[in-house]
Each structure stands twice: as structure tokens, then as C-alpha cells.
Queue: 2 jobs
Job 1
Amino acid sequence: MNESVRKWADTFLPPAALCAMSAAIYLVFEYVPTAQGEGVVQRIFYFHVPIATMTYVAFGVVAVASAMFLWRGTLGWDRIAHASAEIGMLFCSLVLITGMMWARPRWNTWWTWDARLTTTLILWLIYAGYLMLRGSVGPTDQGARYAAILGIVGAVDIPIINRSVYWWRTIHPAVIVGREGTSGLTDPRMQVTLAVCFVAMILLYLWLLVVRLDGMRLRDRVEELRQRALREASALGTAA
Amino acid sequence: MLALIRKDLQIELRTKEALASLLLLALLMLVVLSFAFDPTSALRSESAPGALWVAVTFAGVSALNRSFVAERENDCLQGLLLCPVDRGTIYLAKTIANFLFMMAAQLVTVPIFVFFFNLPLSWGLVGVVASLGLGVFGLSAVGTLFAAVSVRTRAREIMLPLLLLPLIVPVFIAGVKVTARALADKPLADVAHWLHLMIGFDVVFLVVGWLVFEYAVEE
Amino acid sequence: MDNLNFLFAAYTAVWVLLFLYIHILARRNRSLEKDIEELRALLERRARER
Amino acid sequence: MTARVIEARDLGRTFAGVTALDGVTLEVRAGESVAVFGPNGAGKTTLLRLLATLLRPSHGTLRLFDQSVGDGAEARRRIGFLSHQSFLYPDLTPLENLEFYAEMYRTDAQRAHQLLDDVGLTGWAHRPVRTLSRGLEQRAALARAVLHDPDLLLLDEPFTGLDTAAASTLMRMLREAQARGTTLLMTTHDMTRGFDLCERAVILTNGRLVWSGVLAETSPDALVHLYEARTQRGSPTVGASAARL
């Protein structure tokens, strides 16, 4: 990311994301009509679905950035992968929480082993492991490479997991599972609301990404200065 | 590559450590799971495949954990990397060696499993072994890669299962399904899609592992 | 309607987690900036003493 | 005729932003022996591992045996590496270890027996490496390093932890290798041994080459003096130009 893009992102993204989020909240609670026969909890869906989509996008970014890092060896890609994984985890948690809040009144249960739910849970576990791995090796070249390997393997695994979990549940139809209420989206106001929520989540993701990357850059700078201070201190020490 | 596999087997035969602990652990898991699932109940044919796969998976993870510990002593992995062979070849050899260990352990585990769960001896067991072969190979393909990674992390004993278990969920589910089918002595044609899934998983992750292994062992 | 609770709970959870995350990030970035300032001051002081 | 065995240009390596090796330029011709002196953390080991293609350089270029390195497999066939770690499987015997490595290098396994005699391990060949003393293990490691008769021998602190008998065996083997025309590059703390074995030396500090010269043109005392002067200067300002060979 070059300097001008960053500056632009720093000034533009926070207010844009906040405005979009406020607009989304307003639309969800005031503007949009409740879908027929769905009850008021159906409104959760306007945040739930865009966040879920952005979770996949975030983990997709992790995979691409990881592959680029292994290929080119540029630390910048590694930073993007790390930041995106963290935000993906945040979003993934939110998907699970909002999903449960919806499932409880709707299906009368907090959790069902529905294919999508299960895939999301496994996704959460994989990337929890990813962040653990990062924490365990520390910010070294090795840690970056290990994380990149997991970032790629995890992404390759997602479709396979999804397939297997889907078969697992459909062959064993123990719990009756309703699909999320996509059928109710005939009203144009609903479509507008969903679109705004999508935009809001995309902006939010980008904003968080920029903030996290800024943090990493600052940490690098601190490390660099610390090294310099240390070198000079040892130089002074031997001269004295 | 044959030399590499032979070397791993040679070390194993010398120490018998991994194989013994692998066997013992699988056995223990089966015993403990028998308590949990009550193998005398009529439901045993439902719970038996799950018990077998839990035992295989956890014993396998601990065997994988050990597979790079031997390479760490005296920095042997460095010596290996100094040899004029491709890193991908080292990965393939390690994967096959790990696969062979785990399968060797199955030769003992499966009969004991049959006795413990009081299962009929039938041709269905061939299907069980086939599903174990495919599943264990997938476990070995992903596991070898991450064993190389986790061996250099802090708390490596816990790191490997943490990373590995969510990744092998497809193999686990498929293995349980095929095993159940085979134990019921029904034709495997009905679970062909699961077999395909396992084969696909094995191939995909063997290729991915072969491609990225060099990054896992590089300093 | 009782279901309203779940709706509010869901959105509250979203906001709380988001703000928590942003708060942690901002605090970490601020402390890093402070570190940079301190180190820079240290290096400058040393350079002057030289 | 004098082929360039090592040709490093501006070779550097950073680990997570910390520079371990900072632009080293070094040329070694076939048959030369070069000692690398330097304090701990100067980047000696990093340099050796880069040359052994165990590490990839962050910047700069490396050519070995007048060829670009590529994936390294070709170059590795002609490189022997001896470090203070033995690279031997503790549960196998020295003979089994050597036979395994002989297969990996695709050389004659018969050499293994011969070599074990050469390094004085006759009678120990059939005990697991784990049961050997440090000196004996290092002898076996030496046999491993020269098993495939390498053209370039990289030695990382080879004398550390060796008893006198093992050290003199090592000296003898290295002399023989030199006589066969093997190129040597070794890192060491031990200036006298370096003087004994090598005709050229370089001094490495803070990841930079700060001095390089022909040992015949200087004396051990002068070199020690020089070493102390160079390595204690914190900022390697003199280094850059002096490092050119």
C-alpha cells in the first residue's frame, strides 16, 4: 500500500464507515418493513448476511495474501494476511452470535447442526488456530511462513468441509432446518436496506484493516528504533 | 525417497517408541470410548464407527507429533535439507512413512475393535480397512505438513491437534460414514460420494503439502 | 413482543464487540506512538551529547 | 582454471526485520581456505547457512561453482557442511547414519566403512550415536560431512567442544581435504587454528565484512590486535570499502 492511498484511506474510511453503519441501523430499525410471517427478529438478517459474506471475503484475503507472501516474500502481504485473519475472526464470531440470536426465537434452539452453522463453527476453529499459531511463534519470518501455510490450507479446505458437512446433515435429517429468509426480499425497501448493510460492512472491514495495518507499521517502527537505540548504547558502552 | 522412508522405519524398529505408544493410545481410547458408548447395547453398530475414528484420529495426531521430534535431535532435519534432494520429496517420504506407521497400528487396533464392540466378522471389515486407508492417508498428508510446523512452536503437543482437527473434519465424517456402511455389510456403492470425497481430500492436500513444505522447514 | 429482546441482543452484541475491538486497536496504536516518541527523544538526546 | 567456488555479491539476510547479514561480498576460488572470524552474533552462522543454501538471501546474489544457485539441489551435491550439531540420528549407529546419507547423496556406501576407520571410529560403528561421547559423535559428523567427497567444505565452529585427540584428527582430515583440492570456509573463534589451516581470513561484525586479507602478510598478534580494533567499533563505517576483496 503506498503513501497516498493510505492517507486517503485514513481520512476517508472512518467517517464513511460510521455514516454507512448509522444509515444501516436506521434502515434496519425504522425504514424496512418486517417480512411477512417472519417476526421482528428477521431484521437481524440484514446484518447477519453481510457480516457472513465479509467473513468469507476476509478469509479469502488471508489465503491470497498468504500465497503472495510465500511467492514474493514481501512482509507487507504477511501483514495483510494477519490483519485480515483477525478481522475475519471478529466477523465470524459476530455471525455465530447473531445467528444464535435469530435461531433461538425462530427454531426454538440456540444451536443446530445445520450445514452452514457447522461450517462456520469449523471455520472459526481453524482461524482461532491460525491466530494461536501466530501468537505461539511470535512475529518472526518463521511464524509468518507457518501462518501462510495454514492460511492457504484452510482456504483450500473450506469447500471440502462445506461439502462434507452438507452431506452429513442432509443424509441424516434429524433436525428440520429452514433456510434463512431470503424468500421475503420482494419489497424494494428490503433490497435497499440489505444493499446499504453490505456497503457498510465492506467499509467497516476496510477501515478495520487499515487501522490494524497502521498498528503493525507502528510496531515495526518501534522495533526499528529500539534496535537502533540498542546498537548505539552498546557502541557507547565499548567506547567508554 | 525410498532411502528416506527406510530410514524412518529403521529408526522406528530400533526404538519401537512411536509404534508402541500409538498402539497403546489407540487401545486406551477404544476402552474409554467403550465406557462412554456402552458396546453391549443394541446401538453399538451406531457408535462403533465413531469410536474407531476418534481412537484412530487421536492416536494418529500423537504419532504425527513425534514424527519430527526425531528430526530435531542433533538438528537432523538440517542434515536432511543439506542433501541434494527436493524438499517436496522429503515431504512425500515423511507422509508415506507416517501413513505406514498408522496403518501398521491399525492391523492391531481393528481386530481389538471388533472384539470389544462384539462385531460380526465379515467381508465388511475389508471396507473398514479401505476407509481407514484413505482416511489415514489424508490425516498423514495434512498432519505431516503441520507436524513440521508445530514442532517449532511453543507447546507443540497441543498446537498440532489444535491446527489439525478442524482441518480433517471432512475425512473424519467420511470415514465414520463409510465405516458404518461397511460394518452393516451393505454395498459401498451407496457411499461412493464419501469415498470420492476422501480421495479428493488426499490428492488435494498431498499436492498442497508437496508445494508448500519447503516453507515449513526453512529457517 | 418477546422476540424484540433477541433483536436488540444481536445488535448490541455486534456493536459491543466492534467497539471493543476498535478500542483495543486504538489503545495499542496510541501506546506504540508513545513508544516511538520516547525512543526518538532518546536517540536525539544521545546524538546531541555525542 | 581457478574456478570461483563462491561468488557472493551484496549478500544479505534479515530475520523479521532484524538484519543478521548486511551486504557481504565475498569471492572464494577453488582450493582456497578462508577463515571467518567474528564475535558471537556477527552473522557467521547465517553466512554459512546462506552459502549452504539452507537459507535464502533477502537480497544480493549468490553463485556457487560458477553457476547460479537455483533450487540449490545441484550445489548441495558438491557441498559438505560440518557444524557443532552432528546431524546424526541418535537412535541409529554411525554406520547406519552414513549408509543413509550415502544413499541420499547417491555415493558409494562402501566409503562409509573406510571413512569410519579414517576418523578413528573403528569399533564404535555399531553402537547408537546416542551412546557416543561428544568427541566420537563429532568424528562421525566429520565422516558424514566428507562422505560424498565435496568440493566445498563449510565448517561452523568445528573445534567447539572437541577433546585434543578429536581436534587433531579433524585437523589432519582437513589438511588431507585441502591436499585433494577441496575448498574450505570455516568460522571459528580460535585464531591459532584459523591461522594454521587457512591462507585467507575475513572478519565479520554486525553482519558486515570489516576486514579481509591474506594471513601470510600478517601475524597472529597483529590479527588479534586488528580483530579487537575492528569488532569493538560499534558502527561499521570503515567496513563498507574495506570489505571489498
Note: DSSP finds ten helices and no strands in chain B.
Job 2
Amino acid sequence: MNFICNFPCFSIVLCIFGGIISSALKGRAAKYLNAFILAVVAVMSACVLGYTLQTGESFTYVMGRFPAPWGNEIRAGVLEGGMALFFSLIMILSLFAGREKLNEEVDPEKMNLYFIMINLLLSSLLALVYTNDLFTAYVFVEINTISACGLIMIRQTGRTIEAATRYMIMSLLGSGMLLMGICMLYDMTGHLLMENIHANVQILAESGQYHIPLMVTIGMICVGLAIKSALFPFHTWLPDAYGYSTVSSAAILSSLVSKGYIFLLLKIIYRVVGFDVIYGSRVTDILFVFGLAGMIMGSLSAIKENDIRRMIAFSSVAQIGYIYMGFGLGTQVAVVASVFHILSHAATKSLLFISASGLVDASGGSKKFIDLTGSGYRNKIAGVAFSVGALSMVGLPLFSGFISKLLFAQAAVRNSGKMLPTLIVLAISTILNAIYFMKTVIRIYTPVESEYPVIPVKRHKVFGLAMVCFIALNVFLGLCSDLVIRLIETGLSMFA
Amino acid sequence: MNPIFLLVVILIPLLGGVLIPFLPFRSRKQFEIYTEVVVIMASALVFLLMLKRPSDPFTLIYFTGDLTISFRMDGLSMVFGGMIAFLWPFATLYAYEYMRHEHNPVGPRHERSFFCFYTMTYGITLGIALAANMLTMYCFYEMLTLITVPLIMYTMSREAILATRKYMYYSLGGAGFAFIGLIFMIVYGNINFQYGGTLNPDLIGNRKNLLLLIYVMAFFGFGVKAAVCPLNSWLPQAGVAPTPVTALLHAVAVVKSGAFAILRLTYFCFGITFLRGTWAQYLVMTAAMITIVYGCSRAVKETHFKRRLAYSTISNLSYILFGATIMTPLGLTAALAHMLFHGIMKITSFFCAGAVICQTGRTYVTQLDGLGKKMPRVFGIFALSSFALMGVPGLCGFISKWYLASAAFESNQVLACFGVGALLISAILTAIYMLTIVIRAFFPKQGFDESSLEGIHDPGLYMLIPLFVFSAVIIYFGIHSVSLLDFLTKVGNGLI
Amino acid sequence: MSVLLLPILLPVLFGIVLLICPEKWFAKKDTGRKKLCILAATALVLTGLLVVRTLFLKDVGEYYILFYLTRKLPVQFHLDGIGKIFATVISVVWLLAGIFSFEYTKHEHKEKRYYGFYLILYGVLNGLCFAGNLVTFYLFYELMTLVSMPLVLHEQTREALIAGLKYLFYSFAGAYMVLFGLFCLSRFCLSNTLTFGAGGILDPTLVEGHETLLLVTAFLMILGFGVKAGMFPMHAWLTAAHPIAPAPASAVLSGVIVKAGVLGVIRVVYYLFGTQFLRGTWVQYTWLTLALLTVLMGSMMAYLEKGFKKRLAYSTVSQVSYILFGLALMEPAGFTGAVLHSVFHAIIKCALFLTAGAVIYKTGKKNVDDYRGIGKEMPITIWSFTFISLALIGIPPASGFISKWYLAAGALESGIRGFAYAGPVILLISALLTAGYLLPITVRGFLPGADFDYTKLEKKEPSALMTVPLVILAVLAVLLGMFPNGLAQMISRIAAAVM
Amino acid sequence: MGANLLSNYGEAVAMILFGIGFSNLLFQRNLIKKIIGMNIMDTAIYLFLAEKGYIAGRIAPIIIDGDQSVERYINPIPSGLVLTGIVVSVSVTALMLSLTIRLYQRYHTVDLDKISTMLQKEGR
């Protein structure tokens, strides 16, 4: 038993304790503690990734001394390690970039609360990534929800509280369905550990008994997670939640939280119900249709939007539509595409949110387009970053967005049944993306005759550094996609 | 030569352009010299490469799987690249004098950035010319769209920005559909250009009609840049750009790269054996014919000088497409010939228009009375170019028309014969809209007072030198095109 | 080579020199004009001599290739009977009209431009006559249109400009119809250089199966050249463009430029398609119908028209369609008649327009009804006019008679049902109409009537520069009618060769 | 079918309750009612679990006088799940209530739609 095998558990526990400790700390201390924890977690995840790559197979870690099928397990493979590393990196960068902004928006004595939330969020994300036990997953889903709610309402304005409430309600609906689904699975299989459930589900599927309950269960779980990750018809809470919370929160929420649920869904598809069973049922077609709808509707409402942050939020509705569309296509290739899109969207969306906030600050804090005119000149780095993010979203070559578009399209072509709708919708949504993102880019680079009262952008260094890192990440995903994709494939192969 | 030079020749203008805003130029002179040197270096290298062609491609990046960014120089690239390389230095020279007169909203650095993008566009266009596979071409195609955006909205006037948006939406949307074609090539064949097409027959099976549909999609997708009906309304609107842009980009580089892409698509990806005689061919050919007539008739109605030329560009581009859609080797030859010759003729006439604008500030045809006496050289050359456009024998326009027509008759298709009819109708319309200008300029109405034209005279050498050179070329190729056409015939038969 | 190139290049050169040399050289009141006229005159005379020289060369078999447009398309020249005839006529007319205009353009503006284009046009027309293949012909045809345009709109009044544009666009429409044929034929000919060959150069094996396409092409080409020849339905430009130009210009336009169309038709029908391909097809019948229609319509319109020059223009429309009719018959006699008539008509119509020019120049009267007693004022002019009109009407022994005789004979020989008889009848009618619209001028000119007071008549005879060309032309018109044999035989030899 | 229902009336009731709670949470405009709905939903799930875990004629899984034979006790895992679930739901309820209180303090209503309209008027 290699020592590294303890890392997943360590990282989770570390985060939780970090949260507990920072409740006793002052804001700054909590901040540094959090930074430290994040760094450690990143290193640990990197180690896990390296280890699994090296051994070439995943490992399970038994909590306590109870072996399966009773005990509670943690399981780590290439994909888990990679995800954990990626999540922690994004989180570091977002916090780093949003730091100064945070000091403005959150009053100092509440600062440590913020970091409690961050720590808990990270822990729950890690747990969602690593856990091998459905009920644990449920528990951490709830923790995730709660901490996310905290992140949203940390600014204490009416908007944010209202947004938080809506968010809570929607996600409670989701988690209720999820819990029900889990219980029914337990009912049918008598297990909570993924492998065992998987085995039993296979037996059930072959014997054909409990067919309807099985379908209902799958449906409940899928829909539940879809609600929590803001798939199109259930996205109503999203724009407010992302649009009005502090910038780091928005970045983290949009790029990580929903992704955690999606990753859980992925695990359920592969490791609990089983790929063939789930695609044998037509449940995924629902996801497919909703995904397509989301791609269009999200973009349309983004076009109508007049507030840059809300616009970006709506665009992430569309992007989540992409991911579910990939799941719905129901081929290995498509799932790979989806996973890649999880990464690229996470990188791009946080970049967009943060650069947008930079532009907003350069325009006297107004988020309306009309005031953003020419802000690209006033805050150069933010302007460049935003343009990069926008281009990546539009799917321009050499950026990450292009690769995921490519993969999606290839997957679509290989699936003859759903090919044409997918391709058409891809093309259309490309145009729509182009419309609203390019409109914004042109807007921010349009010089204004009346010299704008420019606010001195003080947080330039930190901000710029973070931006550069994000851009680098984006371009890396765009250029070295081959490596990433091979990682994903190996990870998925470890799943099955 | 070493294949690496294929990359170098693209990088020279790109990097040279990027540096322009950062280099400390003491005087305008230095800056002009620098730019000119960069451009000429690139052109010289292109011609060198054409003389000593590197046989094997150069691969820059590996995307996923077998998708690469790689460059190769084959016959088609030689034609397109050669044309670009010949025109660009002169256009730059012209731009120096023109941009002095152009209204400059932001400041001296703005003009620098104009030349920065102008030079970078050169590199991008070369990239399109030298692309060895469809993915590479697609990437540079997208980049071309973006890099030209700042050029179009140089004046930053409201209409300029509107035009830019339109241009961007159209192009990116078109690229979205071209993208579908790309995907299909990836799946149903391979993307490396190869004369005669790369579709894999045993993959096609019963999907023939589907693939034809995709071809049509991709045709119109690329056709957006080639301004094929009904996707061409962006081109006249983009005429608000400074004339060097309208002349070089919207008469040669950008629009021709659209046509070039269609040639690649038709002859090097899907392959004429697959397409000939199918409904797809008839569809696209009809579209081309409609555009030919449509563009001319709009040009006759238009009274804005540059916009009229833009409409004529629309119809002439469809001459090229018509040649392409005949789908015989001779057709390709004819298309290439017209690509070259129209490039020269149209840039000449645009430069004349630009000279008029920057000497007199007159933009409408109705304002040109009697200018022929004041600017004899400019209008003499303009008359020459319009005769060439009409296809008077002894000037180069006739040659390409001749080849187009003979290709049409060779192909034994009734539709093609009607196409010849379309060519002639557009020729008479061309006569109408060009000669009315010439007559106005040289034969003003009786009792027209010369005094209103006091102080108007021919522009300086920067503008005249390109004009003289181009008109010399027009005449030369009009009376001695044999060797060139032999080369083009070789290219058309895929021998080079 | 030089034999053919010189008559083309020399005047073009002179013309260009005239155009580009600055105004002030000729600015001085009268010496400037003198210089100009002398320059032009020398050019005209020299070229005339060069052309006449070609007359004494025997038809050269081989073709002079100047350069290749494409590998298949040479620009080439050659010398044959038709070319000689037309070239000679053109030179004569051009010289005389030129001399006339030295006087006429005194009160015109921009003389330099006028003479420049006048000379260039001359060169281009020579090129047209010596063109060795269709491409070359087309090249010069387009050039002719472009170069003659400034002459049409020389006045630069509003209607002049409009007429010029009309002329331009009609001609280009025609030219592009021809171009279609050019494109199409290059595929079906023996040597696809489109070199003119007596009796047609279609390759029967290639033609096999594409007859319809080729017939359509032939029709288009005839129609296309017919535009220049003012054939119905594309004649509208002619009556607008010819009267508006300065008289000498309209003289050459109406006398010669229209003949370029005729020459084109001859080349197409007799040297490319060949008569045996076209004879008896719908193309021939449609063509005949159109020609006859035009003959009738033209002369009627002329009869109704009051403006002098405009009336002459209409008469041109009808007269040129005589020629087209003769060509459409595709009979040796018809051919002979046609070519003869085009020679005569060139001279006659030129003379008529010059008369008109003279009259307008002196009296300023444009309307026929004002010409009472004009014969008393300018006897020489009107006398020559009278003779010429007789020639045009076709009163023996004047020239018109000969050609019409041949035409009628050709029509009867051809034996095409309907046209064989309809043709001559219509010719006769239109001859009567011709008399109807020309002779009254003379009659009223000399016999103004009883109530006319002769007191306010004064001598308005124009100077020798004007009268001499007129007289020469008149004499020619009559003499050629008396001794037509040499010419007739020459033409019938050609006719035998091409059929 | 009917027999099934009778034999599993516990599950049936749980499902019905779940539906009630779910629809309440979804459709009620009053926040308090929403919270109640949520609790009903959770309770339904606990009922379901308990029903699954209970085996007739056995006692709670607390070892009495050292008898460790499996046959004597009911399945302990569902009970554990129920406990965990209760904890979670309690915390969530607390959070929701606190949010409700805050909103009420600001806007003096617990109707979410009214609050949204007020926010629109505020325009922030």
C-alpha cells in the first residue's frame, strides 16, 4: 500500500479541518491558511495523478477497517486525480485573481466565513470526485450545495440572498430526487458501494426483472443531477447566482460546482449503472434533447442580456448544454468530448468572469454594455483576456473551445441517428456565440469620444498574473489537447 | 529548400506586424521603410519558395489523432500565394500615401496599429495559401476573419462598426458550416489535400446524398467569404473600410481566400469524380450563375463609387466559383486564371477609386464629372481596368473569360452553356456600370464649369507606381499569357 | 507583314500623338487649326496610299500571326478580296469626309480630340478589314465601338451623351452575342484558331449532334453583328446616334461603321459557318424576314421623318438591310449585289450626310420643310445631292441600280418559297419610298413654288473644302454605276470562292 | 399488482408523500411552505428507508446479552442512512429558514415572486 494512496483521503480531511479551523481565525489568516491548503491539495492531487499514471490502474482506499461491501471506500484513478488537480488549480487562480476585489465586497469580519465556505466547497468537490460510495456522494452533494449557497450570499445584498434562495430551492429539488434514486438503488441491489451496485445492476439488467423501477431510478438520478448542474429547463436560478455574487464566487461556481455534479453523473453512468444499461434505456435521450435546447436557448437569452456578467452566466447555460449533449450522444467518443469540455469550459468561463469584472471596474463599476465601451483600452490585460475567452467560446482554432467543438462534432458524425440535429445545432450555436461575444469584444474596443472617468486599476499585477495563467491554461488545452485527451481516455478506461 | 521556410514565410509578416506598435520609430519614414522591408522580404521568400519548391510538408502542431497544422506548397498554393506576394508590397506602398489622408479617430498610434494588422493579414493569407490540410486552412480562415476586423472598423464610425459586426457574424457563421464539412472529411476520408479528392469510397456506402448535402453546406459556408448569393450583403457594406483594405482585402485577399477554399473543397477534398453530375453540382453552379447576374445588376443600380466596385467584385468572384463548379480540370484552370486576373484588375480599379477619394474626397459616381481632365493618369488607368473587366481582347480579362467559356463548352453540360450566357449578360452590365463612370469623367456635360475642380491633380508617386505596374501587368497578360496559362493548365490537371 | 500592319498602326499612332500632345500647341487662332488639319491630312493621305498599295498585291494565302492570346488564339492578319474592297472604300470615304470636316469643325469645340479619334478609328477599321481570324476581328470590333463613341457624343449635350451611351450599350450587347459565338465555335472548328476560311471551317465530325447549339450560335452572331448594321429589332441606337454626331462624323458612321457589321456578317456566314450549313435552316428564314422587315420599316420611318439627318439615318437602316437581305439569300448573285450595294451605299450615304452637314453648316436649318429654295442658295451642293439621291433610289445608270438588280436576281435565283418574290417586291416598294423621301428636297429646293419670294435669297455656297468632296463622291456614285464590271467581276469571283 | 401494493403499503405511502413534498417545494410561492414541503419530501425518503430496513419480528440492531446472531436484528444500514439524512435535512432546513428570515427582514414578505418583482423595481 503506497503512501500516496492516502492522499485522497488526506486532502478531503484537510479541507474539512481547514474549514473548521478558519472559523476561529481572522480574515487574513484564514486566507493564507486556505491558500496553503489549496496548494497542498494541488500537490497531493498531482501526486495521485502521477502515481495512477505510473501504475496504470486505479486504487481503492478503505475507510476504517470495514472491507466492502460494508465499509466506506475512496477510489482514485487517472481521471479522479486529474480532476482534483484541475479543480484545485482553477480555484487557486480564481481566488488569486479575485482577492483584492474580495476585500472590497466582503466586510472583513465575515472574511473568514467566506474561506470556510471555500474550504468546505473544495472538500465536497474532492469527495464527489473521489468517493466510491453513493450515500457519501449524497452527503457531500448537500455540503456542496450549502457551501455554494454561502458563497453566493456572502455579499449580503438583497439580490444575492434572493439568488441564494432560488439556488437552494432548485438544488434541494435535485438532491431530493437524487436521494430517492439512491435509496431505490439500494432497495434493488442492497448495496451502496459502486462496484457492488454495478454488479447487481448488471444481473438485474440481464435477468430483466425490476426493469421499470430501474429505469425510474436512472431517470431520477439523471434529472436530479441535471437540475443541480443547471441544465436548460432548470437553469432559472443560475443567472442571478452567478451574476451578482463576488467575482471569485462566480468564477468558482460557474467553473467548478456544476462540474462536480456532472462528474458525479459521469461516475454513476460508468461505475454504478453501467454504460450499456444506461444507454440501453432511453433516459439519456432526454438529456440529449435538453442539452440541444440549452445550447440554443442559453445563447438566445445571452444575446438579449444587457448585463455582461449575466450574459456570461447565460452562456454557461449553453455550455452545460454542450456537455449534456455529449452525454446524450452516448458513445465513448462523445463522453470523452464532454469531459474535455468540462475542462475547457471551466478554464474559459472563470477567465471570462474575472476579466469581465476587470472591465467592469475599469468602467466605474457598471456592468451595462453601454458603459463598457472602450474599457478594453482602459484595462488592457482584462480586455485581452476577455477577447481570448470569447474567441475560445466561439470555438476559434488554437483555443480550447475549438478542440471540444471538434470532438463533439466528430462524435456526432459517428452517431448516425443524432448526427444532423447535433451538427445543425452546433453550427447555429456557434453563430449565436459569435453574435454576443463578438458584439462585446467590439464594444470594449470601441474608443469613446468623451474621455471616460477611468478608475485607477490598482490590482493590476496580481490580476494580470492570474489572467496570464488562465490564458496560458486555455491555450495549453487548445494546443496540447492530444495529451489531455489521452489522459481522459485512460481515466475512462479505468472507470469501467 | 527546407520545408521549415514554409513556416518562416508565414511568420515574417506576422511577427513583423506584431512588432510595429512596439518598435520606437523616430519618424514616419523609418516606420514606412521598416514595414515595406518586412513585406518585401516575405514576398521575396515566397517567390524563392516557388522557384525551389520544398517537396514534403512541414508539420507544426499535432492536434488530437492525425489532425495536424501543417504546410505544403502545391500548384494551387503557388498561384494564390504568388498573387498575394506580388500584390502586397505595392498595396502597402499605396497605403502609405492613402492613410495620410484617412480620417484617424484615435491618434498616430492608431495608424501604426492599422499597418500592424495589415501586415499580419499578409501572413495569415499566406497561411491559407500554404495550408496542407483542411484543418490548417480552416484555422487560418478563422484567424483571417478576426485579424481583418480592426482594419474594417478603422474609422470607428458607427456604420463602420455595424459593417464590421455584419462581416464578423457572416464569416463566423459561414465558418460554422464549413466546419461541418471539415468534420465530415475527417470522418469519411482524410483532411490532407490531394488532387482528385480524399473521400474514402468504402466508408461512403449509401451516404452519398448526405455527403452531397454536406458539400453544399460547406460550399455556402466558405461561400460567405466568396460572397455567393444570398450571403453577400456584408461585402458592399464593408466598403466603409479605408481603400487599401477594400482594394486588397475585399477584392483580393479575403474574398479570394473564400474562393480558394472552395476550390480546395471541390477539387482536393470531395473530388470532382464524386461531385460531377450530381444535384449538388447543379445547385452550386446555379447559385454561382445567379450571383454573377445579381452582383452586376446591383452594381448598375449603385451610385456609391466603391460600393459599385464591391458589387462588381461579387459577380466576378462568382465567375471563379462558376469555373470551379464546372468541375473539370479545365474549369479549375479557368477559375485560377480568373482569380489571378480579376485580382489585378479589381485592385487597380479600387486603387483608382481610392486615389479619387483621397484627392477630391468624392465618393459618389455622380460627383466625378470632368475629373478625367484633372487626373488623366488615374482615370486613364481606370478606363483600362474597366475595359479589362469587360473582357476586351488584348487585356487580361478576356483570357480568363475565354477559358471559362471554353471550359463550360468542353464540359458538355447544358447548364454550363447557360452559364456562358450569364457571363455575357454580366459583361454587358459591366460595360454599363464601368463605362458610365469613364464617360462621366472624360466627357462632362456641356456647360460644366471646370472651376469647381480647381487644384485637383493626380496623386503622388506612392499611388501612381502601383497603378502603373498593375496596368502594365494587365496589358502584358492580355497579349502574352501563354506561358502562364500553360502553368495553370498543369495545376488544373493536378500535375504540380 | 508591314504591308498590313502599317495602315493600321500609322493612323493610330498619329491619333494618339494628337490626343496626348497638349492643347496649347494648337491654341493659336488660325495657324493652330492649320497645323492640326495638315497633320491629320498627311496622316489620312499616307494611310490612304498604303491601303491603295494593298490593292495591287495579290491575295496572300498565308496568315500573319502577330502574337498569341492563348495557345489556341493567335491575333493574325491576312489580305483577301473582301478586305481589299472594304479597306479601299473606307479609305476613300475617310479621306473625303476628313477634308470636308476641316471646314466643318471650325465652329466645333475640342477639335484635337475629334481628329485624334477620327484617325484612330480609321486605323482600327483597317485592322477590321485585314483581320485574319474571328478573335482579331472581334478585338478590332470592340475597339471600333469604343473609339467611335467619342465621335458620337462629341457635342457633349445631354442628348448627345445619352445617344452615345445608347450606342455603346447596344453595340456591346451585340458584341457579346458575337463573343458567345466566338466561345462556342472555338470548339467545333477544324483548326480551332477560328481562322477565316472561304466556305466555312466547321468540322462536321465535331458538329455531329450539336446542330441546335450551333444554329442558335449562328443566329446570335448574325443578330450581334446586325446590331451594328442597324437590323431590326436592334436598330434604335442608330437613329439616335448618327444624327447627333457632327456631320462628317455621322457621315462616316453611317457610311462605314455600319458596314463593319456587314463585314462581320459576311465573315461569320461565308467564312466560318459556311452556307451549306445554314442554307435552308430556320436561321436563314428568320434572318431574311428580319432583313425585309427592316427594309420596309426603315424607309417608311424615313418617309415620315422631318429632321434631315434623322431621315438619312432611317434610310441607312433600310439600305443596310438591303445588304443583309442579299447576304441572307446565300446566292452568288445575292452576295455580289450585297457587296456592291455596301460599296455604293458607303459612298452615297457619306455624300448625303455631308450635304446635310453643308446645309446645316451654312443655313443652320435642320428641318426638311425649311429647305424651300435652298437649291438656289447652294446650287452645287444640291445638284450633287440630287445625283446622289438618284443613285440611292436606283435610277439607271446610277450605281444603286446595279446593286439592286443583282439583289433582285439573287432573290429570284434562290427560289426560296415566298422570299423569292416577296423580296424584289419589297425592294421595289422601298425604292419608291426612297424616292419619296429624297427627291422632294431637291424639288422644293429648286422649285420653291410661286408664292416664294426670291429676294431674300443670298449665295451660301460653302467653300471648296466642302464642295469638292461632295462633287467627287457624286461623280463616283454615278461613274461606278456606269462601269461596274471590274468591281462586279471581282466580287463574283469571291462569291464563287465562298460558295 | 393490488396485492403488491397492499404488501408494500409502506413504500406506496412513502412515494405519495415524496410526491406531495416535491410538488410543494416546487410550486408553493410561500417560502415557509416550501420548506415544509422539503421536509415532507425528506421524511418520505426516511420512511422508505425504514420500511426497507425493517424485517418483521426482529428487534433494533442493538446487541442485547451478547447475542450476535444476525437473525435476531433488523438491517442496521438503512437506520444509519436515515440518521445521516436527518442530520443533512436539519442543516439544510436551518439554512433555508435563515435565508427566509433575512429576506423577510428586507422585504417584509415571504413570497418569493413578490420579492423578485421588488428587486426588479430596485433594479440592482
Note: Residues 276-496 of chain B form one domain.
